[in-house]
Fold:
Amino acid sequence: MPKSRKNEDTMSTTETSALAVQAATSATGRRFSPLASAKLKQNLRWTNWAPAVITFVIAAALWQITAIANPYVIPTIDQVWMSLIKDADTYWANMLVTGLEVVVGASSGILAGFILAIIMAEFQIMERAIMPLVVVVMVTPIVAIAPALVVAFGFGMTPKFIVTALVVFFPMLVNSLAGLRDVDDRALDVMKTLHASRWEIFRDLRFTGSMPYVFAGLRIALPLAIVGAAVAEFVAAGQQAGLGSLVTIAAAQANLPVTWASIALLCLMGVILISLLALVRKRVLWWSDGAAVGR
Amino acid sequence: METAQPHAGVHIEDVSKSFGPEGARTLVLNHVSLSIKMGEFVSVIGPSGCGKSTLLKTVAGLIEADSGTVEVDGMTVKAATKNKMIGLVPQSPALLPWRTVLDNVRLPMTVNPKANANRNLRDPREILESFGLGAALDKYPGQLSGGMQQRVAIARAFVFDPSVLLMDEPFSALDEMNRDAQRLGLLDFWQSNRKAVMFVTHSVPEAIMLSDRIVVMGAHPGHIAEIIDVPLPRPRTIDVYATDEFRDLEGRVRETLREVMGQKSA
Structure:
């Protein structure tokens, strides 16, 4: 009964987030909880989830047929699965390494991007001064920068953190900057007639107001963080650590199950990151989606 | 001539303002002078492009006049905003969607707190209750109707006890039935909290219903065409609409507006 269990899981996560929205709007929860549960019901209707499931099943079937017909091109799904089970410890260890790169790199890139966006939003001269440099760095292919960084910082974690942070930095900066600038002009007028200081306008208006853009930026940045970590590992593959290194090494040895198992785990990391982000977004940005507030 | 506060209210003296790049400037306000006494409700009405919103923004300190002076209670607009003497109700409610109704109304108290000294700050709860929003204190703006949101915006402008209230077509986004209720609510509240009010509108009945005087503005360039007194007794109720005086006034205002529009096309 794996399928029905999966259904229950989806329901419970959706329910939790619905509860979160209710908690956020506390006193009024009663008023729109019927709305929330109606939405939940709608989400669970088979027309909502079935198309995607069918697509996945077809894709998996096509994969399997191709793999059986061409054993030297791609591995079968069960070969990949067996490899994952057999070498679970190795995969886990490598996943932790890549995970650490993503967490450290992405969070510093996110923080740096957001802080620089604040500085640029508040002082336009800083945007004029720094933005051209940022653009120059960003149009330089990250794949080309990575080897240079390895030369500079060695095969340790540092170049991987830097590459990951660099990749994340730009979408965060651009989106946060747009968000910090895009405030409700009329609310700004109200603040100005109260002689609000810059700090007060930032605190009460810009910071929270920028969050829809910040989360849009995160949605682009987080998957990129995994790309950054993997690319950095490709370059420094000599020291076998991380899923990216695993992919290059296994591919060089034509070890198809290991190659594809590592790829699958990189993919899984991306899915986890995006799902976490969606959960956090719902908690932070409940006010931004009209439907969630029961308009 | 009040001896206690000789300059109480709003004094706009010979204000001109142009917009646009050098060489292609459009004159938006042409030598506009207007005084609003303390406790007086003045509406500004006119065709679009007559500069009524620009005039309001000049008084709010959001736009600086090219020439002329604007004073609020004898102070420059800058000093008046520093002392939080101006309450603004913008065209849209402009509430912060992530704050509860109560916290939205508290906002003017937490901003620029230096100016809170020696001032008759109101209890946000009380003011919201008197606006019929007692049950909505902990709701979020997105859960309220447009009319309720606009009342929250008005409460936000009243709560810190400013001497002047500026309202920029606050009811224009509401449907007609709702608008009447909001107008009466506003009048009711203002009756017991007489501030100098400058109310920009494009609805003739609204201007008559609310005001002591109606300023009719013309466009190209924006100027004051006529100021019409509204001698209807206060407090006013919905019955005012049916009186002969009201209809006469409505005729007069519309006539003036027609003349103003005619000038434009001529």
